[in-house]
Write a structure and sequence with these properties.
single chain, 362 residues, seven-stranded mixed beta sheet, two-stranded antiparallel sheet, 6 helices, 15% helix, globular
Length: 362
């Protein structure tokens, strides 16, 4: 059953059951007024599906994975049939909104000469941050894997080495590389109190009744991705106060204009190129091919804004191991970097890349 058929089947056969599943989740977590809480779990439960499939099945089912190589001119090796990315900038689409913001330690995508295995460098030779315990599913003592790095770090320049007093972000490091993701959805609680959600699939699938069975999921769900190296410099050159709204687009600085668009999946360190791939595809990805500098204060402002959104607050076992949880055992998981998936192998990457250099590309 393809994704569109699965959602249609869910709406026609399970719509009455979904609120009951969500109500039980609300009752245990204290989020009774959050219309999105448990939406993704309810949908998967109703369908009898999980996100995980063997990568051999992903190939057979033409389910392209993320994050892929986004170097200009690269074409993936997996024929994904008719799947195509939605190429209009998400920020110009009135039926789609940002439903979450989170970031990964290092880059999950690869862009040759910008963030790759050769140019990458940072404040430590290897990722050795045992305090980075969030792996996208929960906390562990083993830390998380990092992705690729930008080549912008300069150990002789104090803006890359001067410590910053983080107030809202957890487990962040000046000089390090992070890939920010902004999931967008036409099914989100757009413009309302619970637009932003953690985990992000709850935001993506919040209002399944909005799903348009005549449109591919790639026209209704997408993710922006942009890669940054953090600096301790509060000058206007590296600061943006509206990062919660989506990818930075500034043609004069070359930000958000060199964009590769393709269809893929969700990401994270729990997926790989062998036994564990994701079957929630095809999602449209818009990825900035360039590396950029960002001030630590801008990242901290983003986290502060995220904490103003009640749908991004988690409680109970979800916060186990989080040093910033409050007296009620609640925390904001997405202000901590998530581990990175290894770069997707050619045979798992979709063959539908579209490279853009456009004014207001995203």
């Amino acid at each position: 059953m393809n994704f569109n058929s699965a959602i249609t089947y869910l709406l026609s056969n399970y719509r009455g059951d979904v609120p009951n599943v969500k109500e039980s989740v609300h009752a245990s977590s204290g989020f009774r007024d959050n219309p999105c809480y448990g939406s993704a779990a309810a949908g998967l439960q109703a369908l009898g599906r999980t996100q995980d499939i063997p990568c051999s099945e992903a190939i057979e089912q033409q389910h392209g994975q993320t994050g892929a190589d986004v170097t200009e001119g690269y074409v993936g090796g997996l024929d994904v049939g008719d799947a195509e990315p939605y190429t209009q900038p998400f920020s110009t689409i009135d039926f789609m909104c940002v439903v979450n913001v989170h970031w990964h330690l290092g880059a999950e995508h690869r862009s040759e000469g910008e963030y790759d295995e050769d140019v990458g460098k940072g404040p430590v030779e290897k990722y050795d941050y045992p305090e980075y315990a969030y792996d996208g599913q929960g906390y562990s003592e083993s830390g998380v894997p990092g992705g690729l790095r930008c080549g912008l770090y300069d150990a002789e320049d104090p803006k890359f080495t001067k410590p910053y007093g983080w107030k809202h972000c957890d487990s962040m490091q000046v000089g390090e590389t992070y890939e920010i993701h902004w999931p967008h959805s036409s099914l989100g609680d757009c413009g309302a109190k619970y637009q932003y959600q953690t985990p992000f699939p709850d935001g993506v699938f919040c209002h399944l009744n909005k799903f348009d069975a005549d449109q591919p999921i790639s026209n209704q769900v997408g993710v922006q991705a942009q890669v940054f190296t953090v600096v301790n410099d509060d000058s206007g050159d590296y600061y943006w106060d509206d990062l919660i709204d989506g990818m930075v687009v500034d043609e004069d600085r070359g930000m958000g204009v060199h964009v590769t668009k393709y269809t893929g999946s969700t990401t994270g360190p729990n997926f790989n190129n062998d036994e564990r791939c994701d079957d929630v595809t095809p999602i449209s990805w818009h990825v900035d091919r360039k590396c950029h500098l960002i001030s630590a204060s801008a990242f901290d402002k983003l986290s502060a804004d995220m904490k103003q959104n009640p749908g991004m607050k988690n409680c109970g076992d979800d916060c186990k191991g989080n040093a910033s949880k409050d007296e009620n055992g609640c925390c904001f998981l997405d202000v901590t970097p998530i581990g990175s998936r290894e770069v997707v192998a050619d045979e798992l990457a979709a063959n539908n890349q579209v490279n853009r250099f456009l004014r207001n590309s995203n």
